[in-house]
Amino acid sequence: MAAPRVFTDQVLAEGIRIALETGPSHHLLRVLRLKAGAELSIFNGRGGCHRALLTGSDGGRAQVEVGDLDRDDRESPLAVTLAIGISRGERMDWIVQKSVELGVAAIQPLITQRTEVRLKGERSAKRLAHWRQIAIAACEQSGRNRVPEIHPPESFSSTLDLPAELRLVLAPGAEQSLAGLTETPSSLCLLIGPEGGLAAAEIAAAEAAGFLAVGLGPRVLRTETAPLAALAICQARWGDLR
């Protein structure tokens, strides 16, 4: 069985001993029921992954000795920022999880004209922390050693200034297909609406700001399907999805 992968927010260095946070400690000690001597992989989302050894527990916290560093980040050569309208219920959770698995570099949640979820203050902070935990879990599962940045929700207009070599907005009925693009970017901003898509005025504003409107084919895709289809195409064309 492969060694369990564990995230910690602590500084890591070969030879040090650390006490893991409550969440990963519970998973290792109570869920997996690991004992002293168990081998682990541990990463902090800032690059690379350390081999590690579970040495015991103290006060319910797993005690770990950090070993040597594997510098392979498994990051795509295509840096994608996904700017997406916030969806209702678990749809946004699904989008965060799967887009991290597909190699997205950053996620910018957006408040658009058709966004029904309004996040402010403490509620926004809690939702952001929740999405970050989903991203961390997706990194643990997929083998990524850098946790993508998930930015606080912003207005649609703020997206128009996001930098990238190629900036695309998904627009049903667009003449240009995503798969038919001839550019070879190393960075990409992908702008997608929530349920119901972006309003016509928003698409027009994006195009005026330099975004290229692209489509994904003749069928209408759900808000949780469209970004994953688009990311898969982009990673297959310019990234590392083979």
Uncertain runs are none
Structural class: alpha/beta
What is the subunit arrangement here? single chain
* Strands, count: 12
What does this structure look like?
The protein contains six helices and twelve strands. It has 242 residues and is α/β, with parallel strands linked by helices. It folds into two domains: 5-70, Hypothetical PUA domain-like, domain 1 (Ribosomal Protein L25, Chain P, Beta Barrel); 79-238, SPOUT methyltransferase, trefoil knot domain (Alpha/beta knot, 3-Layer(aba) Sandwich). The strands form two sheets. Strands 6, 7, 8, 9, 10, 11 and 12 form a seven-stranded parallel β-sheet that branches. The protein has a five-stranded mixed β-sheet with strand order 1-3-4-5-2. α2 runs parallel beside α3 (121-142). The chain starts with a strand and ends with a helix. 34% of the residues are buried. The mean pLDDT is 94.
Helix and strand layout, with pairings?
Blueprint: E1 5-7, E2 17-19, H1 22-31, E3 39-43, E4 49-58, E5 61-70, E6 79-85, H2 91-101, E7 106-111, H3 121-142, E8 149-150, E9 154-155, H4 156-159, E10 166-170, E11 187-192, H5 200-208, E12 212-214, H6 226-238
Helix pairs in contact: 2-3
Short description:
This protein has helices at residues 22-31, 91-101, 121-142, 156-159, 200-208, 226-238; strands at residues 5-7, 17-19, 39-43, 49-58, 61-70, 79-85, 106-111, 149-150, 154-155, 166-170, 187-192, 212-214.
